[in-house]
Structures are given as C-alpha cells and as structure tokens.
C-alpha cells in the first residue's frame, strides 16, 4: 500500500510539474513578441512624431509675445481711475455721513448752508479736502439755542471752520504748521491749532479742546474724521466785554407852583417886592376873603404903605 501511495504521489507531482511548465511555456512566448514589438516600435515613434513637436515648439515661442498684450488692459482701470471717478461724480459727503450714522445734525447744517454743494464742486475739479465731523452728541453738549442764535453767515463760517482745504492723513498731521488754515474767513478770527502727541491728534480752537476720535472715510481726495466736540471759533463765540452802564442823568429841581390868585398881580420879580404885593400875600396868609371887609383892609394897608414911602 505504501508503495502504491508513493507511486501515485510521484505521478501527481510529475503531472503538476508538467502542467506548470506547459503553462509557463504557453505564456512566455506570448509576452516575448509584445516586448519585441515595443522595442521595435520605440525607435520608430520619435522618428514618425519628430515633426509634430517642432510644430508645437512654435506655439510656446509665440506665447511670450501674446502674454504682454493681454496684461495691459487689466492695468488700464488703475491708471485711468481718476477720470473714471470724475465721470461717475465726486464722493457724496452727506451719503457717507448718513451711512456712518450719528451725524444727522452736521448733515443738516451742510445742506442748509449749501456748504455740501461747495464741497461737491471742489471735489469735482480734483481738489482735496479734510473734514472734521462732529457727532450728534457733540451738538447736544452745546448750550440750548446756540445754533438758533447764529445768523446764516455765522452758520456758514462755523461749518467751513470744520473743513481744511487739503487732504491730511493721520500720519501727516504732525507736519502742519499752526495756526492751520481752514475754509473759514481767516486765521486771525478763526485760528485752529493741531498738535500730535503719540497716537492722539489734538485740536484746539481757543475755546474748545478735543481729539480725533476715528476715521469715518478716506480716499485719494477726501478724508473725514470724527470729533466728539463742535469746533467753536473765536470769531463767533469769543466772550465779548459787557457794555458800560450809562451815566445817571442829573435830576432837575421842580419849579415851585404859584398861586393862581397871585400870578396876575406879580408879573415880574420887581413887582413881587413891592408893598402892594406884600400886602396881598399877607392877606392870603391870613386867609381873608377877597370880598367884603378883606378888600377894605387890603386897601387901607396899601394906602398906608404908599404914604410911608413918600
């Protein structure tokens, strides 16, 4: 039995080895031709396709010449930005402040004084401006009726006092020389002093001291800064001396009233010293009636006085 088993295993081993060898032999000749073909075709490929790469090489050669022609249009808007902006119109300061919020009182002053139109015209001709915009809280801190007490011209000067005729960035305030020129009348009546201490920009009018609280808006023509106090110029709000009280008028002494009965008899100062006038005054002092016996007494006294004089 053992021998038969070994013989069977031997036959199975030989059969397996033979089938494996046959399988490998069958596959190995199939792969060999494919490798031969690839090796044979490999040198042919660059020969047949040598011309197309030359054609493709011309395309990259043209690419550098075409690339600069495409880039300039993307830069044109950057160069022509100011003309494009001028055609679109200048920056609307009122809309900028409305969008920022808490500037409604200053916006109303800009429109009522027509300073907003002046700003628009100046920006339209490429002028530059810097605006200090007081908040609504800054106007609320004023004494009641302050704005209503101003004339139209004073309101215009007040608004223009908050505008500088040049563009000043936060980094350039330290380069300004005091007093700083504003769009108000002159620097004598409307002086404005600006100093920089560290990160703070201080503003002084001679009446009010404040600092820039932040930047509201800034571009190449316009800068708007937020201030927490209204800039009150000396030309409008400077304390004025009180007028002197008028000198008292001298009191006139009242004239003595004369009796109607004696006015007819004493027509002059000379007659008032006459004996007759004295007799009449004496009779009045005694309270005698001019009728009857009183008249007789007066006549007797008069006759006696005249006789004594002679």
Automatic annotation (TrEMBL):
Keyword Secreted belongs to the record: no
SUPFAM superfamilies: FAS1 domain
GO CC terms in record: plasma membrane; side of membrane
InterPro entries in the record: FAS1_dom_sf, FAS1_domain, FLA_A
Compartments where located: Cell membrane
Keyword field: Cell membrane, Glycoprotein, GPI-anchor, Lipoprotein, Membrane, Proteoglycan, Signal
GO biological process, one term: plant-type secondary cell wall biogenesis
Residues covered by region (Disordered): 29-84, 245-276
Compositional bias per record (Low complexity), positions renumbered to this chain: 29-69
Pfam families registered for this protein in UniProt: Fasciclin
PROSITE patterns: FAS1 (PS50213)
Source species, domain of life: Eukaryota
Signal sequence region: 1-21
Topology term for the membrane: Lipid-anchor; GPI-anchor
FAS1 domain residues: 90-231
Function: May be a cell surface adhesion protein.
Entry similarity comment: Belongs to the fasciclin-like AGP family.
Protein name, entry field: FAS1 domain-containing protein
